[in-house]
DNA sequence: TCTAAAATGATAATAATTATCATTATTGCG
DNA sequence: CGCAATAATGATAATTATTATCATTTTAGA
């Protein structure tokens, strides 16, 4: 794998925008400063970085795949109203995996937990 | 909402094929016996039935949305090799929700848990 | 039986993502 | 340094999953 300026910019953009953006959103965030970078390159590099575990790919929240610069194991809360994504600490998962493994007999390697509800902002605005 | 023969067939197909099929797969399963039914009708009815909580929509496993005739709360295990989907009992979730709510202060209404690993078939075949 | 509302099939449109391919950039070596 | 091999890029076509459109057909109730 070779260095590329574009990859560096894409990663930096993701790090500076910790809002779990989609590929499209990363592209939009870049585009003002770096109008030359193509959407295909954004997709390519986000997928590459995710394969290398430099960043994390999140599916199953809404329509599009989102990307997260935070590779520490953690989970996500999606607001059912505004669709903002919040991080939730990991501590719960190991106990859950152990329990699920015991109950099902499956060889569980990892787990994704997606929580849903109304976020604080949407609750107070109601 | 009015009765339709197509909806009945679509639901029956899903019940008789508890493999968490995608809309496309439901369509393929139907098509041999009922070549008249259109793919659009399959999508429409799966979404309708999911809104009415007669069936359940599962996103975030792989690429496409899957459908599950089992509406009892439960979770899913996806084999990283063969991508088959297994059901996992619900018991773990309430404790997890309580713990996550306590830690994060978020108003959690529901949670989806997706477990990953190698399924028994793929383990023995290795 | 008649009519309004809902559902259908066929297909166009959209959205997200991946593939293609000619051109450009990076890297390591002589 | 300069050059070849390899990887990455930009532009865009292609693909996949899904939703929208709309004329026609079904359903259900008066």
Based on CA inertia axes, which overall geometry of chain A fits?
A: flat
What string, H for helix and E for strand, traces the elements of chain A in order? HHHEEEEHEH
Straight-line distance between termini of chain A: 50 Å
Structural class of chain A: alpha+beta
Biggest interface reads:
A-B, 34 and 34 residues
What is the name of the CATH superfamily of the largest domain in chain A?
Winged helix-like DNA-binding domain superfamily/Winged helix DNA-binding domain
Number of domains of chain A: 2
- Beta-strand percent range of chain A: 15-25%
Radius of gyration of chain A: 17 Å
CATH topology of the largest domain in chain A: Arc Repressor Mutant, subunit A
| Residues in helices of chain A, as a percent range | 40-55%
Strand order of the largest sheet of chain A: 4-3-5
Oligomer: homodimer
User: In the CATH classification, which architecture of the largest domain in chain A applies?
Assistant: Orthogonal Bundle
Low-pLDDT runs of chain A: none
Write a brief structural summary.
Chain A has 126 residues and is α+β, with helices and mostly antiparallel strands. Chain A folds into two domains: 5-68, Winged helix-like DNA-binding domain superfamily/Winged helix DNA-binding domain (Arc Repressor Mutant, subunit A), CATH 1.10.10.10; 74-125, Ferric-uptake regulator, C-terminal dimerisarion domain (Dna Ligase, domain 1, 2-Layer Sandwich), CATH 3.30.1490.190.
């Amino acid at each position: 794998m070779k260095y590329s300026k574009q990859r560096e910019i894409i990663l930096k953009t993701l790090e500076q925008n910790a809002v779990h953006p989609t590929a499209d959103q990363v592209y939009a965030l870049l585009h003002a400063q770096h109008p030359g970078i193509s959407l295909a390159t954004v997709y390519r590099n986000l997928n590459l970085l995710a394969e290398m575990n430099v960043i994390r790919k999140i599916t199953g929240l809404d329509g599009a795949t989102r990307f997260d610069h935070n590779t520490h194991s953690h989970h996500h809360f999606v607001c059912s109203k505004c669709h903002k994504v919040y991080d939730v600490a990991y501590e719960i998962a190991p106990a859950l995996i152990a329990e699920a493994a015991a109950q099902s007999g499956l060889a569980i390697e990892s787990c994704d937990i997606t929580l849903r509800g109304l976020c604080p902002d949407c609750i107070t605005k109601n």
